[in-house]
């Protein structure tokens, strides 16, 4: 097979794969037995895994050679997320997986031949990366071989839990002495890998996913447990016709109760010039109608819709902050008298942009910079019509150069406040403007 296709270029081979997939339709299935169909399924999974491994290696090479920086002026993650319509997280994971295969050559070769799957290979490289720093090359190679052997009987989740066992296999005479070191390494890694992601799912909910070191998570767990216990004790007061919440639902309610108490006692520091609060955007007339129990809706500061019943509940205990875009009730233009964005301008800017305006970026307003479209140093004013929200990464890409001939990404503002991003001429000679997806609905209405 390899010899018969070896004379083709890589783009031709990828196009050939594309054509093969077009031909693999359901009406081609003429298998004699269910066993054959099952066998075809396993073979197809193996082929798909090998394709994934090849793509991971390709992207790792793009990252190592800084191809995206040279051609697009962006990181590999930003380019890949935009070009392949991936999330930044998906793009980063793809690149990291390829880097792991490059670092651990035996695993990479086993994955390329289909001996281990793409998910197994990613698990194996994560385990090998956690081995003690003083293991020599021979021990690492032995570790690779051992893990490849484990892959014949373990799935990816099981493989990720084999780090400690692998150390015992590679260095049994020092395992006790290494135990204390292992715990220290795990503590450092847990600290380095800590994260908290809060993402809208597009269906009225927010997905919360994170990781904390055990010693930091334990007090949080106890807080949640205490509020959960309080909620559980009050279950007898619930409407008997209502379904009894599950344990996980009670923990979710406990987290909301914890946040609510924190807000009411104003315990949190300021964020973006204001204390943390839920911002609901609606017109003044709508506010009056809501107070009269009319079924209209509002939106949060990030553009998510709010049910009328929930909004009416907020109106029972809420601050009202008027934002008048360009009107006399609020001074939105401080001209040249002040360079930094004032709290009223920032509130209006958050309301208009709802996050980073670079297409494909999902950073919320509170993590973004207020970017001067015409720079302050070039006579630009601190006014709403000269500002846009950009996350730190995309701010560095958009920020104008002191050299006006530099071929860079640029940002302009339409009359309706919509940000247009134009790529450099080296990417698009016509510099066709790109608009963030969150603005498309507004443009159609």
Note the beta-strand portion. 5-15%
Compute the separation of the termini in Å: 55 Å
Mean pLDDT: 80
Give the CA-based shape. Answer: globular
The total beta strand count reads 9
Strand order of the largest sheet: 3-4-5
What's the helix-strand series?
A: HHHHHHHHHHHHEEHHEHEEHHEEHEEH
Structural class: mainly alpha
How many strands, what sense, and barrel or not for the largest sheet? 3 strands, antiparallel
Low-confidence stretches: 327-337
Using only C-alpha atoms, the radius of gyration works out to 28 Å
- Portion of residues within helices: 40-55%
Number of domains: 3
The number of helical elements comes to 19
Description of the structure:
It is a single chain. By secondary structure, this protein is mainly α. It has three domains: 2-195, no CATH class; 197-264, no CATH class; 343-444, no CATH class. The chain has helices at 2-5, 10-23, 34-64, 67-72, 76-83, 88-103, 105-112, 118-128, 137-150, 156-160, 163-170, 175-192, 214-233, 247-264, 284-291, 308-315, 343-353, 392-398, 440-444, and strands at 195-200, 206-211, 280-281, 298-300, 305-306, 369-372, 387-390, 410-413, 419-422. The strands form four sheets. A three-stranded antiparallel β-sheet has the order 3-4-5. Strands 1-2 form a two-stranded antiparallel ribbon. Strands 6-7 form a two-stranded antiparallel sheet. A hairpin with a 4-residue loop joins strand 4 (298-300) and strand 5. Helix 6 (88-103) crosses helix 7 (105-112). The longest helix is centred in the N-terminal third of the chain and has 31 residues, at 34-64. It is globular, with a radius of gyration of 28 Å.
């Amino acid at each position: 097979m390899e010899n018969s296709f070896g004379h083709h270029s890589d783009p031709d081979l990828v196009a050939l794969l594309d054509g093969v997939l077009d031909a693999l339709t359901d009406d081609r299935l003429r298998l004699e037995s269910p066993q054959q169909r099952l066998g075809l399924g396993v073979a197809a999974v193996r082929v798909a895994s090998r394709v994934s491994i090849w793509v991971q290696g390709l992207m790792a090479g793009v990252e190592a050679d800084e191809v995206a920086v040279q051609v697009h002026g962006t990181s590999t993650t930003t380019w890949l997320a935009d070009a392949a319509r991936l999330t930044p997280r998906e793009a980063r994971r793809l690149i990291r997986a390829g880097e792991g295969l490059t670092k651990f050559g035996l695993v990479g070769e086993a994955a390329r031949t289909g001996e281990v799957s793409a998910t197994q290979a990613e698990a194996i490289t994560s385990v090998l990366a956690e081995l003690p720093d003083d293991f020599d090359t021979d021990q690492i190679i032995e570790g690779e071989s051992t893990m490849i052997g484990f892959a014949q009987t373990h799935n990816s989740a099981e493989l990720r839990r084999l780090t400690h066992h692998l150390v015992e296999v590679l260095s049994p005479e020092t395992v006790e002495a290494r135990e204390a070191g292992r715990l220290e390494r795990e503590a450092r890694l847990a600290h380095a890998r800590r994260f908290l992601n809060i993402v809208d799912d597009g269906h009225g909910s927010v997905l919360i996913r994170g990781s904390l070191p055990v010693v930091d998570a334990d007090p949080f767990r106890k807080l949640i447990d205490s509020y959960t216990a309080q909620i559980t004790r009050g279950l007898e007061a619930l409407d008997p016709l209502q379904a009894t919440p599950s344990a996980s639902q009670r923990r979710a309610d406990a987290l909301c109760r914890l946040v609510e108490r924190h807000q009411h006692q104003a315990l949190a520091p300021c964020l973006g010039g204001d204390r943390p609060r839920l911002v609901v955007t609606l017109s003044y007339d709508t506010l009056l109608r809501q107070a009269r129990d009319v079924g209209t809706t509002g939106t949060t500061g990030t553009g998510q819709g709010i049910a009328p019943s929930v909004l009416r509940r907020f109106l029972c205990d809420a601050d009202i902050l008027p934002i008048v875009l360009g009107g006399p009730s609020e001074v939105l233009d401080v001209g040249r008298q002040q360079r930094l964005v004032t709290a009223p301008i920032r509130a209006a800017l958050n309301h208009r942009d709802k996050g980073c305006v670079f297409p494909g970026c999902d950073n919320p307003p509170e993590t973004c910079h207020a970017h001067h479209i015409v720079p302050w140093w070039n006579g630009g004013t601190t006014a709403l019509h000269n500002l846009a929200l950009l996350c730190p990464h995309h701010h560095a890409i958009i920020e104008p150069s002191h050299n006006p001939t530099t071929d860079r990404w640029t940002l302009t503002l339409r009359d309706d406040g919509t940000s247009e991003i134009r790529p450099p001429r080296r990417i698009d000679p016509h510099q066709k403007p790109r608009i963030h997806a969150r603005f498309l609905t507004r443009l159609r209405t």
